[in-house]
Amino acid sequence: MHRPTTIITSEHVIYHFDATMEAKWRVKAGDLIEIRCPDGVHGQIRTETDRYKAVDYDHVNDAVGPIFVEGAEPGDRLVVDIRDIQIPQNWGYVLLIPNFGLLKGNIEDAKTKIVAIQDGHVNFGNLRIPLDPCIGTIGVAPIEGRYNTVIPFDHGGNMDTTAIRAGARVHFPVNQVGGLIAMGDAKAVMGDGEVCGTGVGVPINVFARFEIIKGKRLPRPIIETATEWQFVASAETLEAACKVANEDMIAAISRVHGSSWEEAYMLSSLVGNLRISQVVDPLMTVRMAIDKKYLPTID
Amino acid sequence: MHRPTTIITSEHVIYHFDATMEAKWRVKAGDLIEIRCPDGVHGQIRTETDRYKAVDYDHVNDAVGPIFVEGAEPGDRLVVDIRDIQIPQNWGYVLLIPNFGLLKGNIEDAKTKIVAIQDGHVNFGNLRIPLDPCIGTIGVAPIEGRYNTVIPFDHGGNMDTTAIRAGARVHFPVNQVGGLIAMGDAKAVMGDGEVCGTGVGVPINVFARFEIIKGKRLPRPIIETATEWQFVASAETLEAACKVANEDMIAAISRVHGSSWEEAYMLSSLVGNLRISQVVDPLMTVRMAIDKKYLPTID
Fold first, then answer.
1. CA gap B68, B6 in Å, rounded
2. Contact B270 A129 (CB under 8 A)
3. Which of A13, B36, B117, B165 is spaced 20 to 30 Å from B191 by Cα?
């Protein structure tokens, strides 16, 4: 990999994705950028006696940025091409937080588990889990208003989606000049669902290139992998999120194949796969995936 | 594959999984059985002018059976080891049904699409989709009461889960003597979610062996693949189903690893993957999968 032209650090972080937020870095599309992100609790958890008693929306999920990508204008699409994610630390944390997580009714006391990272694996008791780092929070300035970095929505944000990993290209709408991207809240490993409310929280160094696709704005993030398009949606319930993701997929199928809404809906039922991203944030996030052999492009 | 010792046909079908239903066939554990299942609408759809205007709960999702497995007693576990699924027909149907499916608000008129099956693929327009048949409805007699075959619940039923395919072993609770299994409502291909309300509906011939695991009753179905355990749960909402599946996984992890509930919950968050089975039936079905390298057995 080439050396990055710019290294972006946690010198500046945001706790809200805000339509009016100011850029703190400025980069060119195509350049390799390194973004050094703190962990999702900004270093507040170091030992198992450090506990997280409640989600403090003012001091959690800080996202490094905002990054202004030159040439990105409202109506465009901004692609974050994630080339590599490195974990510059040999341990991570898993948290149980009262009133947080899928089974929050069962959590009376906060609990912290520190796990070692060794030889490409997380050690959990005597189990060894291969590292597969993902970016939990990544987004752009919204069209209007502001969203705490804990909240996922159409601007991205806390999507906690395992598919946002090295090799993925994440397509975002450009809502404000420069796009104003920010990211953080990484996990070294995490399952689909993030049921207890966290994966293995770690800092990461992301190596990425930004790409602008002019005039092809999307309503919401779409993840592109080598083989799939994944339409991401966040809503109050999983069912509501499923509907939005399905509608977005149907729109893309209709656009690309020129098929009727009904035919596209049928095809989405045969080869579209609804997947759970997270069920805890507190909006729910799903993605609906389709193999590129059935949908080569989304434009 | 050896020849089946028994061929079970649609001579007898059920429209309810009933605690008091009578067995129509009797088989021995270990024998290879062929079960010939009609399609999910029992042949009512033959052409694109045959339309399905409403889900008729009295004449849909008929399941072939009930099959009494000798030696299966309440408190046991019954495993259906699916060896092969063959499709004895060169076409299938996809339906849009008013007031049914994830985006039912958009469906004004019933619509039927007949698709050809050729050389191991479904032809959908000029797309060729590889056959991957699954059993939509499969279950046992419940502990009490009766469930229409359209409804998925703890006895199984209309789980519409793509993972119930050849090579899978599906573990069921034995609630009544003989287990009383029945199955049908197959799809030649289907995506996770079954969003439009159907996959490609076809008749199938299932080749399966039944196995009894004495005294190891489960609360709900679990799918075993070569590499995974998948804890299946159906409920009014996806969130509620996710909770049940996660609780079942935590219980198995605690049982097998001797870990605390909290540790098991954390592990489930790191390596457990919540997956959507279907969002339309009208209860929702999910499964939570864990690699056997993290959970070699469930007992």
1. 12
2. yes
3. B36
